[in-house]
Amino acid sequence: MITLRVKKKLLSADGPIGLDVDVQLHGPEIVTLFGPSGAGKTSILRMVAGLMDPDEGYIEVNNDVWFDSKNGINKPVQDRQISFVFQDQNLFPHMTVEENLRYALGDKKDGHLIIDFLKMVDLAALKSQRPHMLSFGQRQRVALIRALLRKPKIFLLDEPLSSLDVPLRLKLQDDILALHRKFEVPTIFVTHDLSETFKLSQQILFLEQGKISKSGKPSDIFGDGLSGKFKFVGSILELVREGFLFIVTIQIGQNLTKVVATEDEIKGINIGDRVIVSAKAFNPIILKI
Q: Tell me, what's the pLDDT at 280?
């Protein structure tokens, strides 16, 4: 269990905000910090990692106190057993893929795992290559494996896929899920991508102006009470009137789908908007988000 109670005065692009978070996280879930830029998401990761000190608060991980302002406890970064993956991978340029991973491996008896995990993310054939010979996406996969091979108590991801195009982003989302199932490490994930949030998260903490305004499962946070057999997130590409109805073209991942909607149903929806497409009583419903 992770107990996180922190307060911190921050300066955002919109002015000063008071970060004030009090939450407990249970089990090896992927918990996503979601919200507008400047809400304090990355600052929370940095405080958990020990890269930024709260003004006051308390951080405990599996009965191990990492920070306690009242009792003067502040464990250094190297003693917190965290792994942090940013947009930049920071692989050692003079080492091969395999050497980068062996360097991160704490227990040398687990060396056989390296090839197993490289196979999971389709990189086994590149184990002897150096980072500059890999694509951005390949380097990011190596960074993910390297971080997890350290056997962290918490895995922190700060928008690691934001620079990738859609096909590669979807592939790496699958890789993250596969690696998470294998390692079962509690993971705190920061992203601005709503479809990514739906796909990866077991729980969402919605941050606004430094406070958690909502928390719960993705369908609870964004579903607005809709029920149904399916629910997808996509972007409006086209709105075409056909008599009294509209044909709405929506991009969902790499696929396009068309939905028939009335004028009332698409009121306020424009090309480029992000929407949830849900089914209720066999009728698709489009909800702007």
A: 55
| CA pseudo-torsion sign 8, 46, 64, 183 | positive
Contact 205, 215 (CB under 8 A): yes
Positive or negative, the Cα torsion across 234, 196, 232, 225? negative
**DSSP helix/strand/coil, 259:** strand
Rounded to 10°, the helix 113-120/97-104 angle is 120
- What strand order describes the sheet that includes 203-208? 82-85, 154-158, 187-190, 30-34, 203-208, 211-216
Strands of 283-288's sheet in order across: 255-262, 245-252, 231-242, 274-280, 283-288
pLDDT at 148 over 80: yes
Mean pLDDT of the chain: 85
Q: How far apart are CA 166 and CA 161, in angstroms?
A: 10
| Enclosing H/E stretch for 74 | strand 73-74
End-to-end CA distance of the chain: 32
Q: What is the pLDDT of residue 126?
A: 93
Contact 25, 225 (CB under 8 A): no
Query: By C-alpha distance, which of 99, 91, 85, 79 is closest to 42?
Result: 85
Read off the pLDDT of residues 17-27 as tens digits, 9 standing for 90 and up. Answer: 899 999 999 88
Over pLDDT 90: what percentage of the chain?
37
Structural domains in the chain plus CATH codes: 2-222 (3.40.50.300), 231-288 (2.40.50.100)
> What is the separation of C-alpha 71 from the centre of its chain, rounded to a whole number of angstroms?
32
Q: How far apart are CA 148 and CA 182, in angstroms?
A: 10
Dist CA 250 CA 119 (whole Å): 34
Strands 255-262 and 203-208: unpaired
By CB atoms closer than 10 A (0-12, 13-18, 19+), residue 245 is middle
